[in-house]
Design brief:
Layout: E1 2-3, H1 12-15, E2 23-27, E3 30-31, H2 35-42, E4 48-54, E5 57-63
Antiparallel strand pairs: 1-2, 2-3, 2-4, 4-5
Length: 64
């Protein structure tokens, strides 16, 4: 997964509930093992479906 190191308050990601220290496990249903995986999964996409782990829980976040 990809560790989120910071999220700008007020940004689209912040409003969608992405937070610092979240771990993004997949993007657009592609498992992530590196930042390069993330870049390939989101390239040229207008919508982004993230599978996010926060502590012991998990959730999906949709960014449009």
């Amino acid at each position: 997964g990809i560790l989120v190191s910071a999220v700008e308050p007020g940004s689209h990601a912040w409003r969608a509930s992405l937070r610092e220290d979240d771990i993004i496990r997949s993007a657009n249903r592609v498992d992530l093992h590196s930042l390069d995986d993330f870049k390939r999964a989101v390239k040229d996409q207008r919508k982004l479906l993230l599978n996010v782990q926060r502590g012991d829980g998990a959730m999906f976040i949709l960014l449009q």
